[in-house]
Amino acid sequence: MLNELVFCSAEITLMREDDIPFVLDIERQSNPHPWSESSFREAFASGYLCLVAREAQCIVGFAIVQVLVDDAELLLIAVNPSSRRSGCASMLLAEAVQRLSLIDRSPLHLEVRRSNAAAIAFYEARKFALTGVRKNYYPSGVAGQSREDALLMSLALRS
Ligand SMILES: CC(C)(COP(=O)(O)OP(=O)(O)OC[C@H]1O[C@@H](n2cnc3c(N)ncnc32)[C@H](O)[C@@H]1OP(=O)(O)O)[C@@H](O)C(=O)NCCC(=O)NCCS
User: Fold this and answer.
1) How far is the CA of 96 from the centre of ligand 1 (A)?
2) What pairing do the DSSP bridges indicate for beta strands 108-113 and 72-79?
3) 123 carries an active-site annotation
């Protein structure tokens, strides 16, 4: 996965606190129930692994990973709509995987809405395996519709 050819020219770095407004802007364009600014600030202050993809001084994507005692959870990953399908999320994930492998955390877990076909395709392409389903876990992303299942997926990391 780490050696695949990608076309995103972004640099992946640790998030800085002053990146949060730009990250929040991408989150609001990407998530039907976006994290609040205070959630980002708490994640940052709590030492979560917070990565950004920076292209020509602009933030084009980000990922937030909660590092646990043995394993880790990918809490958020999103790319600016105009920068999608160019490999940015793949680069963010590869950086997270590399950092988690170095500190021997595995597997990397996540939850994804059943209706989020793009994200599920992304995770499947990145070799995440389906490990379970949480019924009616999410509030609906569409007004007036019922709740939605979460798919649980995991990626085993090699150190
Ligand atoms: C999911 C998301 C992060 C993917 O970001 P991205 O930068 O476009 O992903 P990449 O370019 O690295 O995609 C790599 C591969 O994932 C798969 N993929 C990504 N988006 C896809 C889509 N819309 N449809 C089908 N496959 C897709 C493809 O296999 C793709 O490879 P290809 O472009 O060569 O076909 C992005 O669509 C996004 O920000 N979505 C909104 C936020 C979100 O849903 N996050 C996940 C929450 S669990």
Assistant:
1) 16
2) parallel
3) yes
Catalytic one among 111, 124, 137, 148? Answer: 111
Is 159 in contact with 101 (CB distance < 8 Å)? yes
Ligand 1 atom closest to the Cα of residue 111 is: 48
CB atoms within 10 A of CB 43: 20
Q: Is the pTM of this model over 0.85?
A: yes
Ligand 1: which of 82, 84, 126 to mutate, judged by most atoms within 8 Å of the beta carbon?
A: 84
Write the pLDDT tens digit of every residue in 95-150. 999 999 999 999 999 999 999 999 999 999 999 999 999 999 998 867 677 899 99
Q: What is the model's pLDDT at position 88?
A: 97
Rounded to the nearest angstrom, the distance between the alpha carbon of 117 and the centre of ligand 1 is 9
Tell me the C-alpha distance between 80 and 61, whole Å.
6
What's the gap in Å between 7 CA and the centre of ligand 1? 13
Residue 3 has pLDDT above 90, yes or no: no
pLDDT band, very low/low/confident/very high, at 2 (cuts 50, 70, 90): very low
| Tokens encoding 15 | 């998030």
Which CATH number is correct for 11-155, 3.30.360.10, 3.40.50.720, 1.20.81.30, 3.40.630.30? 3.40.630.30
